[in-house]
Amino acid sequence: MKILVTGGLGYIGSHTVVELLNNNHSVVIVDNLINSKIEVLDNLKIITKKEIDFYQIDILNFIELEKIFKKYKFDAIIHFAGLKAVGESCDKPLLYYENNVSGSINLYNLAIKHNVKNIVFSSSATVYGDDFKVPFKEEYGLGTCTNPYGETKKINEIILTDLSKTDKDLSVVLLRYFNPVGASKTQLLGENPNGIPNNLVPYIAKVAIKELPYLNVYGNDYNTPDGTAIRDYIHIIDLAKGHLKAVEYAVKNKGIEVINLGTGKGTSVLEMVKAYEKASNIKIDYKIQPRRKGDIETCFADTAKAKKLLNFETEYDIEEMCLDSYNYMIKNIK
Ligand code: NAD
Ligand code: WQD
Q1: Lowest mean pLDDT: which of 22-26, 274-278, 330-334?
Q2: Which of 66, 176, 57 is closest to 112 using CA atoms?
Q3: pTM exceeds 0.90 for this model
Q4: Could you tell me the distance, in angstroms and rounded to a whole number, from the CA of residue 294 to the centre of ligand 2?
């Protein structure tokens, strides 16, 4: 298949491109590099030994984006392009609605105009909000989000659901990711945000390489076994493989499906700290801080639907996630 991958140089997109190319699909990447580097493209070529067509285009630019749709006949689109910093979205809601909603509307308009019938969208477990009991099941639908970022995911889900009602030939998979961590085994792709990371594992990684002195653990008074919050961490390679299965499912099945991509296992903050210490053999200092605003206590996936529809099961455990994160960090210390 020929697949348009928006945001394909980002963290999840780049790992997915590897899986797509290794399974004999061809990809065209569109990315404006707002949160990625062009070196990722070189690394993708090194890893896969394949040619990749890349265009530095903002999906908000309808005219430039349409040139791509005129140049290629796509079988499917995997839509990753978006801004993802929860805190920033609270400070700059319009930026997030414009980029993540208006940008997506451009893309969906072009998909319809150019008859691309298969779309896989990067949604998030964040759309469940704090409204439901774990494990989160797809049938629960949309909960209450505490931030504009989450709202942009919900709006995209609603738009694509409505679109699928207007065109019976359309096939949409809304993938609700839980917490992706880790890196490629090649150590050429991974996540190393500039500045102070918002997410747990990138933060621990920077403590491990002594770029930050200690981890702030946000809250130890949750109603969990060790008092710290619980999440469903999924290895980035497993997540990428889930996309391969999802896009292959989309071309064979019409209609819309919401599918969780997680492991179904919950891990607390302190368990993750211990796993990282074990994997890296480095002591991770931490200080207990008050709860972080907007955080929920426990979040993990019901994985039955991913197993049933996609035959998707995860392979890697948290220690391997930590090991791959650490190896990537060591390799990429500047
Ligand atoms: P990322 O920031 O690493 O990748 C996103 C890519 O999209 C970047 O390369 C960025 O440059 C590009 N991009 C952003 N806006 C663009 C625009 N207007 N035009 C063209 N390119 C644009 O993020 P990621 O972690 O790889 O996430 C990919 C998608 O998955 C995002 O939509 C994100 O919201 C979603 N998601 C991420 C997580 C997570 O924890 N990483 C969890 C759930 C959902
Ligand atoms: C995990 C746990 C923190 C940092 C976020 C987005 C979500 C999705 C994935 C995109 C929480 C604790 C964290 C730190 C800590 N992204 N923590 N110290 O909040 O589950 O999800 O990323 O869709 O939308 O909200 O992930 O990694 O930020 O936090 O104690 O320095 O680690 O409080 O309990 P989260 P996270």
Answers
A1: 330-334
A2: 66
A3: yes
A4: 10
